[in-house]
Amino acid sequence: MATLQLSGISKSFGAVAALTEVDLSVDAGQVVAIVGDNGAGKSTLVKVLSGVYAPDAGTIGFEGREVTIPGPAAAHRLGIATVFQDLALCENLNVIENLFLGQELGPFRLDDVAMEVRSWELLRQLSAKLPTVRLPVAALSGGQRQTVAIARSLLGDPKIIILDEPTAALGVAQTAEVLNLIDRLRENGHGVIMISHNMADVRAVADQVVVLRLGRNNGVFDARSTSSEQIVAAITGLEDNVVSQRAARVEGADQ
Amino acid sequence: MTAADLSDERLRQATGLRGSASALVDRVRAGELGMVPVVAGLLVICVVLQILNPIFLSSTNLVNLLMECVPVGVIALGIVCVLLVGQIDLSVGSISGLSAAIMAILFVKDGWPAWLAVLVALVAGCAIGVLYAEIFNRVGIPTFVITLAGLLSFLGLQLKALGAIGSVNLPFDSGLVEFAQLKFVPPWLSYVLVLLAAAWLFVVGFLHAAKRRTADLSARSTRFLLIRSGVLAVGLGLAAWYLNRTRGIGWMFVLFVALALILHYALTSTKWGKAVYAVGGNVEAARRAGINVRLVYTSVFAICTTLAAFGGVLGAARLAAANQASGGGDVNLNAIAAAVIGGTSLFGGRGTAFAAVLGVLVIQAISSGLTLLSLDSSYRFFVTGVVLLLAVGVDSLARRTRTSHGRA
Lengths: 255, 408
Ligand SMILES: Nc1ncnc2c1ncn2[C@@H]1O[C@H](COP(=O)(O)OP(=O)(O)OP(=O)(O)O)[C@@H](O)[C@H]1O
Ligand SMILES: [Mg+2]
Hints:
The structure holds two protein chains of two kinds. By secondary structure, chain A is of the alpha/beta class. Chain A has helices at residues 42-49, 72-78, 95-99, 112-125, 142-154, 172-187, 199-205, 228-236, 242-254; strands spanning 4-13, 16-26, 31-35, 57-62, 65-67, 80-83, 160-164, 191-195, 208-213, 216-222. Chain A has nine helices and ten strands. In chain A, helix 6 links the parallel strand 7 and strand 8. The N and C termini of chain A lie far apart (50 Å). By secondary structure, chain B is mainly alpha-helical. Chain B has helices at residues 16-29, 36-52, 59-84, 92-109, 114-139, 143-162, 175-181, 187-214, 222-244, 251-269, 271-281, 283-288, 293-319, 331-341, 353-372, 377-404, and strands at 167-169, 321-323. The longest helix of chain B is centred in the middle third of the chain and has 28 residues, at 187-214. Chain B is globular, with a radius of gyration of 22 Å. The interface between A and B is large, with 41 and 37 residues. The complex binds adenosine-5'-triphosphate (ATP) and magnesium ion. Residues 42-43, 85, 164 of chain A line the site of magnesium ion. Chain B: One of its GO terms (molecular function) is transmembrane transporter activity.
């Protein structure tokens, strides 16, 4: 029984069908990578899962029950945590305030010491390079912000963690750290959905690769036994695509 | 060993007394001006007005000035909340006038007990805020327009309610009027309050620092905390002593300060406060963090209009009358200007409750000083306008500095 089971999810924005009858399932202890070209509908699928958009059609099963996710708070309650592509941080708030936004300790008398201690724990776990957690997020670099957004998703021990291009802005050490973290999350029995354009990262950590193309499922692959070429072919929809042509050209030049 | 939060080698060590001082200088340099410009501005205004008319800084005049600033100050507290979520309420003047009229009519003409009349006026104010927020949440009309409509409608309602009579006088021996005009803190009690405030500041700071040390985080030194409380005690003590040479500190002003402190606590130390700043900073991020954004708007507008109604009641009590001019004229603009002069950003997400206190002191100082010079309201409007422009100018320049220093 999969922890998270989507079937027939559709979502349109006016005339644009961003998602058409998409299926997806994630088990506990499984890392599923969603890949696809720009505009394939990956972020839209993430937003459906995190309660930002309501799907037009389709069902969502969570731990065997059929659920609706009417809002972000509902997703939090179910145990679905998301790192959005645009990070969704408040620039005027500092790192601690952003980490605990909506989940502060001590609603009527904030326990800022406990929150600061926990913040440092989370950030150390990600090898974050932050001089201080009392700076407003506006003062952080792109990668530091991404680390903060990832750290935020780990609060409260979620069952499913969704990472929308989590390593796009990260340095080498931080990228490796995030990939290690994904490994650890899998070992601890979390389900992870990871979106990435980086085939090396995808094949390094994912168990399964789900390809979206123009808002539709275009194949599910086993990450270990499938070559990058096959996945790229599914992403572009062509055996003879710009990526393989380029690869052939470079190879030809080498010889 | 350095504390856990200071271990990054890029962080310049800033501990102890000197550290605290140099951190403050750093922040001001980086455009994190906070209260500095408005305090400086207030000092300049006071010096200039004192030179023009030596009565300005007399004890009698300052006692009066503090009492005068309460009604508008209470309204400005609400405006700060609304500005923090990046919205505006243009109708606070009309709401204060309407609530003054409701209170006066129920109390004087219908013979209700004062507390009940005040309560009804406050509930009416609160209902208006909830109505605004409902319209904003459901229909999405900009609050600028909703509250502009409110400004006109509630002014109409106020005139209609006062109708034929046009004015209702409150009896001078009623508790309300006595509270607003004659009730002053006895001198001994004022010094006790000052000492309590200083002790409280120290105890809270000390416990917090101890807790941080146990958690292996950097903390303020006890020496710094002692000096801070000492400076506060001496400063407030001298002010109290000077005011006590004549009538002293009005209870109404104490009430205003208490309201400001409560709002400050709510904004800085509760989950609700963080939600307010988050909505003002990035609504979409707040929504995705699971914050009920609509509820935040509703609470903020309800607080703003309730405080506006309360300001109206206090204004009527101070004047011992509610009339067609209550809440009219410059009340609206002064309340908004006070919040902005105090350093609340019009773009949301920046500002504190103390902004309203400092801002209203500036406005009231100008008003009082120009009245002493026998200059009519035309000058007052003009000068207040210039000060508002200066204050926002300083804020905008600070914003640029912040951006370049990475604190935007
Ligand atoms: N809020 C929106 N309003 C209208 N159309 C939208 C909206 N969000 C997404 N779309 C459309 O839905 C489609 C899928 O967008 P989505 O953001 O899911 O792509 P993506 O796969 O995440 O792409 P990328 O790799 O660039 O992040 C696009 O055609 C986009 O134009
Ligand atoms: Mg995307």
